[in-house]
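Need tokens for this chain, all 112 residues.
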Amino acid sequence: MLVDSASWYEDGKPRLLTTPTKKIRTVSGPDVRLDQFVITSDSLRVFLLDRGLYDLSLWAARVQSVDLRFVPTNINITPDDEHLLLREDATTMWVFRITDQELVHSMKVPGS
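Here are the structure tokens for all 112 residues:
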């Protein structure tokens, strides 16, 4: 289980609670907050936004920055876990292919 520990621990790093053993592990890597995130359907990875895009491996308990040319404002994941939808601004959304960690194409947001 993923625990946002910003208010529980001074370092503010997310923690992982292993429910069968009832042990808590600290996630290594950059300090991030779990304000905007998506979880893959196998519950092994979390993609989150915190002044950039981050990839959190729950198995390895490690978070890594994903290099992008913009700072996304919103995030979503496709049902097949193949792509993230990343909003750049009020008018532009990007499709990000997870396996290649690359931006595939952009689209105009309807109504903008």
